[in-house]
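Bit of a strange request maybe. I'm writing a small parser for C-alpha cell strings and I need a real example to test against, not something I typed by hand. Could someone generate the C-alpha cells for this chain?
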Amino acid sequence: MRTLFNFNQPSLNPLSPNRFTSPLHHLSNALRQSSAVGALALGTWLATLTPSLALTPSQLGEKLGTVPVFTIGIVEENSVTFLEEPIKTQSGGEVSISRIYMNPQDAQADLEQIRTDNPTLPSNVSVARISLGEIYCLSQEEGCDQQPAPTGEPPSFIYFPDRDQLGAALDLLKSQGTEVEENTPLFVPLFFAQVVTGANSTTVPIIYFSLKDLECDIATAKSDNANLQQADFQVQVTTLGQVLQQLRSPENANATELSFVPIQRSANGTCTAP
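Reply from user aminoacidic:
Good idea to test on real output. This should exercise your parser:
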C-alpha cells in the first residue's frame, strides 16, 4: 500500500453519515433556470451522449466534491493509504488498482472478506470516506487545482456501484424495453429526469446517484407546484463513466449548470426526509 491522497477535511469521520439538500425540492425553479441555459440541448446530450459539453478537471472535481465515496485503506491524520491489489490486464500484464465504493456497507462487507482471505492484513486497514471529486482529480494526469496529481503514474481505481441502485437501474432499463445482457459489466448508474409538458420536453440539469431520491423529489415537486402536476416526468438512466467522459468534451458553457445529488435514500426507502 502507498499514500496517494491527502484529505482536504482531516476531521472527517470516515464512516459518519452526511446529509445533503436536494436541489429538486424546488424543481420549478430548476426548470426555469434550465430553460434559460438551454436545457433542450442538454437533454439531447444526455439522451444521445454526443460530445457537446466540457468542464476543466478542477471544475468537474469541484462538482463531484459533494459526492461521498468509500475506499479500503489506512487512515492516518490527514492522509489515507489505499489498499492496492494487482490484477491481470487483457495484454497479459499486471496493474495495481484500488477499490472505490458508492456504499459503505458494500465496502465493509468486502473488507471482511479480504481479511478472511488474507489473515496478515494489517489490523488498522478500514473503510475510509472520501469524495468522488478528489478521487477524480487523483486519476487525472494533470490533477486539479484543489488536488494536485501524485508523483508518477496516476493511480488506477475500480468502481463498485451501490448494489441496490444498480439493480434499480437494470430494472428500469428493462421496463423501458432496453435489452440488458446477463454479462453486462458493472457500472455506476446515474438517473435524471426529462419533463414533458404538452409539446415541450426539458431535461433538468441535475443528476442523481439514487433513483429513489429522484422519484421522491419528483413527487415533492408535483405536490408543491400545480403547474407540474400534469407534467410527464420520464426518468432516464446513464452511467458515471459516460457523464464524466462527456463533461470533458469540447467546450460548452452549459456544463457549468449541471449538478450531482449523492445517495440519501436506499432503493427501497421511503420519501420521508432522509
